[in-house]
Fold:
Amino acid sequence: MEKNTNLFEYVLRMGDDSLILGHRVSEWCGHGPILEEDIALTNISLDLIGQATNLLEYAGEIEGKGRDGDAIAFLRCDREYKNLLLVEQTNGDFGKTMMRQFFFDAFRRLLFERLLKSSDIQLAAIADKSLKETKYHLKHSSEWMIRLGDGTDESHSRIQDSLDSLWKYTNELFFMDEVDFSLIKEGIIPSMDGIQEEWLVYVTSILEEATLSIPTNNWKQEGGRIGKHTEHLGFILAELQYMQRAYPNMKW
Amino acid sequence: MKEVNITELERRFQEKIDNDIKIEPRDWMPEEYRQTLIRQISQHAHSEIVGMLPEGNWITRAPNLRRKAVLLAKVQDEAGHGLYLYSAVETLGADREATIDDLHTGKAKYSSIFNYPTTSWADMGSIGWLVDGAAIMNQVPICRCSYGPYARAMVRVCKEESFHQRQGFEIISLLAQGTPEQKAMAQESFNRFWWPAIMMFGPNDADSKHTAQSMKWKIKRNTNDELRQMFIDVTVPQAEMIGLTIPDKDLKFNKETGHYETGPIDWDEFWEVVKGNGPCNKERVDARRKAKEDGLWVREAAMAYAEKRKVKNAS
Structure:
């Protein structure tokens, strides 16, 4: 029972990351800097919404109270969403969107690689399916880091600003509490320690190639994992939940 | 001497067309044929791209995860169609970015239907069912168009459009058979989209200035009115089947011809929207122009970086 509560919480956190980031990225649809990027961004959003569907459906099964993925995705209050603060940050310019994506993709790749060995078969299967697309996302976002960082003076300065403003949200990627500790002990999820080190090595190497500097201010912002969000989440939910709240209990 | 050659070239060109032999990018073609195709294919490409906006509008508000994913996939397909079509335009020697700039300055047109707003979720159903349905009627004959690259692009586009049409019909029929609120939502949307959808086929044949020449060149295989009639004949029974009322009190079925006859189409509205006075003309073009302007620094960075790589690799 205890295990199920923890696993539910963990899968919910992952599902919310995919859902909220997928929502943010979808806001680009039709407004990308070039047609090829419009297609890429829409595709990334589609992958994330697909992951969110798999994860939140699974969370509903673990919970066993009859909620399906849609009930979980659309019918909770803000404090019940457990996504990272990073993923709810506004899109800003294309560079900020790519910076947010880069931090997230680099994390997700390492996480999914380890979750392949999870003792939870369903979680391992979702990781397997998601890893392939995450690798593409990471390749895409890493290449943009380098192009924008080492492109023009303007792009360098813009992407450095995005790095400066988003860096404070990256520590939360590696958040751990009793939910994680108990699942680590059971071999269901990996420890974050190794992941954080490897993430930093990868991110640093790309940002160096991009001629960008990691901020020395190490102030951290956290809270999403326990449902304490930034002001942005409320607006996301207002759009996300609009139909389900305005027309409850209907089939679409 | 030169005059004779051109006459001979034109004769051979028309002979190929008459024998249903495809014209390929390297073949000789009359300048007007080339210009007609550039105009038509780029308008088609612009329609795909502008068409992303009214639907993109509802992605963040889609009512469930499945609908959200399907809508994302559909809008992504449209961007893909835009991409093939711009490539087809380039085979005619036109520059993709220059044709896009024509859209932004108002010189180039796109399908007027996208100048109408999408104000309810049911509009995602109406667009798929009616707008993509009308587009399929228009585009299936283009699969047999005389210009090879356009015809081939259209084969793939039509396959995806028929999936779009089905998902739209699924949305609207679910609503039409749903709760009273959903039924009202479906009917309200249908009322707004019916007339603009039947205007999508363009003016009546008598007022269509390009039709005759385009038919002779087999760029166009059916007239506007023929296609419109096919669409109406297919769509009216679908609407009746799911319990929606056609917003046309004069609509009747003519037993002798076997066709439906509609009341008068408001061509004044059509021409006003074409001229730029539709409800969303300015918003749509502004959104596209803004995307290009906001993305300038990104494109410049990509070019600058590519240039640096080239220099580095050379040394």
